[in-house]
Amino acid sequence: MSSQILLLPGDGIGPEVVREARRVLEAADAQFSLELSFSEGRLGGIAVDEEGAAYPDATRALARDADAILLGAVGGPQWDALPAADRPERGLLAIRADLDLFCNHRPALLFPDLAEASSLRAELVAGLDVLIVRELTGGIYFGEPRGIATDADGVREGYNTDRYSETEIRRIGRLAFEAAQKRSGRLCSVDKANVLEVTMLWRETMEALSADYPDVALSHMYVDNAAMQLVREPKQFDVLVTGNLFGDILSDIAAMLTGSIGMLPSASLNADAKGLYEPVHGSAPDIAGTDSANPLATILSAAMLLRYSLNAPEAAAAVEGAVASVLAQGLRTADLIVDGSHAAPIGTRAMGDAVVAALQCH
Predict the structure, then answer these.
(1) Residues 76-100: tens digit of each pLDDT
(2) Catalytic residue among 141, 164, 213, 308
(3) Contact predicate 255/108, CB 8 Å
(4) φ, ψ for residue 39 (rounded to 5)?
(5) Which entry of 248, 274, 277, 335 is annotated as an active-site residue?
(6) Catalytic site residue 272?
(7) Contact, 357 vs 350, CB < 8 A?
(8) 141 in active site
């Protein structure tokens, strides 16, 4: 029985990096007999322009039928003047809510050959392997009421609501504890429980859950301290779990520890392991169409797709090994070249070629 993969190239560099990830998935399919089939839809700015909505009905139907979804990126300055409810990013929030993709896994893994490209000293990040588990369908990004209001004096006020129920906290907490069980057994829950009631409940709920996982050491950290510790001593962490807003910020910090945001994949999963897989980086419209984007985060997102949604761990490991191989060969896109290096960057297509070749040699 074939597995249906929906490709959502999106905006900016999205189509370029998704193209390379598809080539890698096709190579993995040929090697491991995965029986993959592909369809393509629109999400984000391109969908606004072509279909009048960031998450159009046609894409919604394809997404619900797919076994897994690979997304490039959404957004760009040409849509910034649209009302907030009509912007490309609302399509991303909509598909997460529609498919109940509440659990976001963002690994920050430093490949050995990129230690010198990290924003921190090599000795601080060598061997870095951190997993950030982010709640994705609740919190301030989805809470109501929200909006911009004008009072009687003509003064405008923007407002958002940060809210979590015990049910939402427990379900993301359980997945985080289970992830920690499969790693080193350490889980750090990140909150702001000294000032925010919603995260006071978050901490209380995590503490209560910990009784069900005696083999996991649970700790707590305020988000401002967690941000500092990620750039001070990142290897103290193994698994971090946090809410939507804090997870968004901390995972981007962690991205720079790995050498480039172009190296960080992600998986957004529902209770049935159906997932939306995407690189953490944005649409980078300034380099779109120049064949200079780094496709490795998207290729690594495809590896996560193979592992989590298609239950093909051998194929996933082979793709990850192919990425490690091309980096060991010294191949770099422009974002991975350290200042002062005399290495010549390769383009998006050439990096895809290299990964496919390494995979075929597996």
Answers:
(1) 999 999 998 899 999 999 999 999 9
(2) 141
(3) yes
(4) -130, 165
(5) 248
(6) no
(7) no
(8) yes
- Are 144 and 151 contacting, i.e. CB atoms less than 8 angstroms apart? no
Does residue 353 carry a catalytic annotation? no
The 3-state secondary structure of 242-292 reads: ECHHHHHHHHHHHHHHCCCHHHCEEEEECCCCCEEEEECCCCCCCCCCCCC
Provide the whole-model pTM.
0.87
| pLDDT score, position 340 | 62
What confidence category does residue 342 fall into, taking pLDDT thresholds of 50, 70 and 90? low
The stretch 102-128 carries a mean pLDDT of: 85
β-sheet bridge partners, residue 36? 3
What is the distance between the terminal CA atoms of the chain, rounded to a whole angstrom? 25
Residue 285 CB neighbours (<10 A): 16
Which residue among the candidates 98, 252, 291, 353 is catalytic per the annotation?
252
What value does the mean pLDDT take over residues 204-229?
Answer: 98
What is the model's pLDDT at position 257? 84
- Looking up tokens 């407002």 gives 159
The DSSP code for 51 is: H
Does residue 69 register a pLDDT over 80? yes
d(CA 253, CA 257): 7
User: Which is catalytic among the residues 192, 277, 308, 335?
Assistant: 192
Backbone angles phi, psi at 82, to 5 degrees: -70, 155
Buried b (16+ CB within 10 A) or exposed e, 217-232: ebebbbbeebbeebee
Q: Which residue has the tokens 């897989």?
A: 277
**Between β-strands 156-159 and 147-150, what pairing exists: parallel, antiparallel or unpaired?**
antiparallel
User: Catalytic: 224?
Assistant: yes
**Token representation of residue 233:** 């001593």
Q: Which helix (H) or strand (E) holds 73?
A: strand 68-73
> 3-state DSSP: the chain helix, strand, coil percent, rounded to 5?
45, 20, 35
Residue 100 and residue 270 in contact, taking contact as beta carbons nearer than 8 Å: yes
Find out whether 71 and 10 touch, Cβ atoms under 8 Å. yes
Do residues 223 and 163 make contact, with C-beta atoms less than 8 angstroms apart? no
pLDDT tens sequence across 242-273: 999 999 999 888 877 887 888 989 999 998 98
